Amino acid sequence: MPPGEFAGGIEVRLDELLAARGMTLTELSYRVEVTIANLSILKTGKGRAIRFSTLTRLCEVLDCQPGDLLRYSAAGE
Amino acid sequence: MGPSLRGSLLLLFLSFFDVYLGGDLSRNDKGVVSVSVSPGRNRVPAVVAGNRWFGRLHVIVVLMLIGSGLAVLGGLLTTVVLALQSGRHVDYGFPGLWPAQDKVDLEQGLTPGTQVVRTMVELTAFNAGDRPALTALFVLTWLPTTLTAFLALFWLSRITLPGGFGDNVLFSVRTVTLLRRIGKVLVIGSLAAVALDFAAKTAAAHILLQGAYAIPGTIVSPFFALAAGTGAYVVAEVIRRGLEMLDDLQGTI
Fold first, then answer.
1. Does the pLDDT at position A1 exceed 70?
2. What is the ipTM of this complex?
3. Transmembrane residues, as ranges (chain A) (predicted)?
4. Is the pLDDT of residue B47 over 70?
5. How far, CA to CA in Å, does B164 sit from each of B90, B137, B156, B157?
């Protein structure tokens, strides 16, 4: 594997948390003040990075810890 | 030296510092000059007269492109004349040849007391019997250089196109690709031009002169083209890294 590339990745478990709380993506978007497009990017794992401020607002609104929202998945999982 | 003169000299020196080293220069009410370096170095230089200067730059690049196009046409025209001229009436020849032996009478052209230290004679010669070979060799002396300049200016004019004033158009993968292309053509073209000029002039010297030796050709202008090509590669790499950073920044949510 070339240096700087990783086999695994970070999953953002927005779908599961939203389903558990009965919240829609539109409502989450309104409450955390992040556009639906950007939340979709996060959800699909296409985001390059997440600001601490965004993570803080997501945890506040979803009433969870960063570890509940993010999960490391090794290659092939 | 009076205090006011000393102060002026100090300010002059510090102005140099301000302009060339990116320092930040300021003078308070009591006339005390203070300097800070880091804020000035991080400051983005102000754009002069908006984007108008970029439009003017495009006009200059296009004029240079037209000039290099005319140089190509002039070279082609000279080549055609060289190829078609008869042996009786010769106007054009193979330029830049250095004869092994020369006799030049300079006594008439010197002021009293002047001595000739060294002479260098450069010939333009032609032999109708070797016309096809001389024409082909003549093409090798000018075409690589002018074609290199023309292509580099053509791609440079694509970068400075009026439609490319927007940040996203100018600071883009397209610009990186064009700059790399310019760098490649300048580096390879200038080296090829030197090699072909050397080979062509040496071959022509062996055809036209007795006791001919290798002629190095023009070295100076290819050196500048080589430097400009390397510079284009450096600028392309700077923009590429900037694009990577921008990509990271835009992907941050």
1. no
2. 0.73
3. none
4. no
5. 49, 41, 12, 10
